[in-house]
Amino acid sequence: MYTPAQVAAQHMTKGEEMLGGHMVMPSTGMEAPGQMGMAGATNAQGSSISSTPMMTSSTMGSSTAGSATPVPASSYRHLEVHICDRSTGMAVQGVHPAIRITDHTSSNMTTNIPIAVMQGIGSGTADLHYGNNAIMPPGHSFTVTVTVGSQMAAAQLRIPS
Ligand SMILES: [Cu+2]
Question: Three-state SS across 87-142?
Fold first, then answer.
């Protein structure tokens, strides 16, 4: 994950550019669990929700989570929500979605995901999406709920074990 300034200065062609918000990073090193399938959900706006292994960046500092029971890096996924206008198919920009995940494998624990705005480097606004790194451990089943204004979409997904 890079800032637009880093992308310009370092001529980056891969990874994602952060347009707003802050990325949550685990405090330890990363592993790359298997790729996750797409779980689609649509509403009046239409959105697609996916969770992928986190991408790491050596230029990104780790956060200092002073928690007594550290969450292993393998429990983090990069959760992305692409919100598209149903009539044009274009990525919706400038909205303030709320993304909430409910972990059905952990007593239906519900977490509000801090919103970061991202797009793939070189992909332009067509790839604009919202989300963050989130604690989604392998084998857990989730409902992901996305709210934009009065519109809501939900999708079920399960992280491969
Ligand atoms: Cu992203």
Answer: CCCCECCCCCCEEEEEECCCCCEEEEECCEEEEECCCHHHHCEEEEEEECCCCCEE
